[in-house]
Amino acid sequence: MPKPIRLNAFEMNCVAHQSPGLWRHPRDRSHEYNRLPYWIELAQTLERGLFDGLFLADVLGIYDVFGGGPEAALRHATQVPVNDPLLLVPAMAQATRHLGFGVTVNLSFEPPYPFARRMSTLDHLTEGRIGWNVVTGYLDSAAKGAGRDRQTAHDDRYAVAEDYMELVYKLWEGSWADDAVVADKAAGLFTRPERVRRVAHEGHFRLDALHLSEPSPQRTPVIYQAGTSPAGRTFAARHAECVFMSGPSKTVVAPRVAAIRELAAGLGRDGAGILMFTLATAIVAPTDAAAADLLAEYRRYADPEGALTLMSGWTGIDFSRLDPDEVVEHVQNEAGRSALENITRADPGRRWTVREVGEHVSIGGIGPIFVGSPTTVADQMESWVEETGIDGFNLAFAVRPETFAAVSDLLVPELQRRGRYKSAYAEGSLRRKLFGRDRVDDSHAAARHRFV
């Protein structure tokens, strides 16, 4: 039986996410990002297409590396204005039954105690359909917004993250027993005090407290991780149940998949059981010619300067200072490292100029673009799955929401015809849909903190 292909929608509570400039397209509805009806309709469209989840990116801070200030980001709406992703989830959960929600939260600026309660609350309200994309940040502007001079060094951020994860696992898994809540009206007893215990933690973070929420359906949300630097891979091998990566070619993505699976196996986990998603954009139309015309139409609205504003933030390099025909060279800094390696180290067969980076990233970010009829795009997706070892795709949009509607209505039926895509959702929580269980497995780092 062929390996199933999984799909998440890659979105963000902002105007221009991965395709700067496309907000100007006459059919695009990105200006509705701050209205609930848009998000409710999107969630229903994705559920119609049996998407596993809506993966919501987020960033704290402004992309102010390009040109040395925020002007370019503001002018092009490059991930600013940007609103909180978590506040969208309850409304979308109410309007759907199965769709999962992966929310990005930067642990560098979230105190773990209230954050743990916020995620438990979302797990309750979604009936177990919440996941957390763990990030440590990459913008100095975010650190300054939190009262710091600059962000913590790259690898040091992951060291802090390890302590953070241990603490929230203790709260989610170890503070309340499964049978703590009895809600016995006759006895006047809601919670058995002896089945709730304080969490004591001493490390980078200190805590001595009870978790404030009773056990939620999954307890620990499904853990996503997006970062494939050496430190990021080690973190993913220990904590991630799903990994999100990006790369422009199969030769970039395949070794990253293999490295994380191998590292996880070395930690006693089932590396093959970690779901790997890579960034891609699918431009699907009834025929190849119609899809090519659609892409050409989209490119008329693409914004290379907005794209370079994104890349400057991701890599810490001010692309405004480089000649458009200059080849991009590798620079070691404290920003995100995988984005820069995508165009300097990961694919030895290609050297990217600044102009090429701007053109490529202007539609769909650093990932590939699949263009064609449902048959053609399904062929491309199958080849990526077979040749890289990924399990599926985080699909970015070009035009909102028509990119996702075309995938749901045109591509998904073709994948189903090939036996590569589910015909119905499984029942239960997001983790049960993905892995057949509600709780983290016994080999996961959170499991050792369970209340016993």
Description of the molecule:
Helix 7 packs across helix 8 (250-266) and helix 10 packs across helix 12. The two termini are 39 Å apart. An eight-stranded parallel beta barrel has the order 1-2-3-4-9-10-11-13, surrounded by seven helices. The protein has a two-stranded antiparallel sheet with strand order 5-6. Strands 7-8 form a two-stranded antiparallel sheet. The model has no long low-confidence stretch (mean pLDDT 93). With 452 residues, it is an alpha/beta fold. The chain is globular, with a radius of gyration of 22 Å. The chain has a single domain, classed as Luciferase-like domain (TIM Barrel, Alpha-Beta Barrel). Strand 9 (222-225), helix 7 (230-239) and strand 10 (242-245) form a beta-alpha-beta unit. The protein has helices spanning 36-48, 71-76, 89-94, 112-125, 140-145, 154-174, 230-239, 250-266, 288-299, 304-315, 338-344, 354-361, 374-388, 402-417, 430-435, and strands at residues 6-12, 53-57, 100-106, 130-135, 181-184, 189-191, 199-202, 206-209, 222-225, 242-245, 275-284, 369-372, 392-396.
In short:
With 452 residues, this protein is α/β, with parallel strands linked by helices. Helices cover 37% and strands 15% of the residues. Strands 1-2-3-4-9-10-11-13 form an eight-stranded parallel barrel, surrounded by seven helices. It has a two-stranded antiparallel sheet with strand order 5-6. Strands 7-8 form a two-stranded antiparallel ribbon.
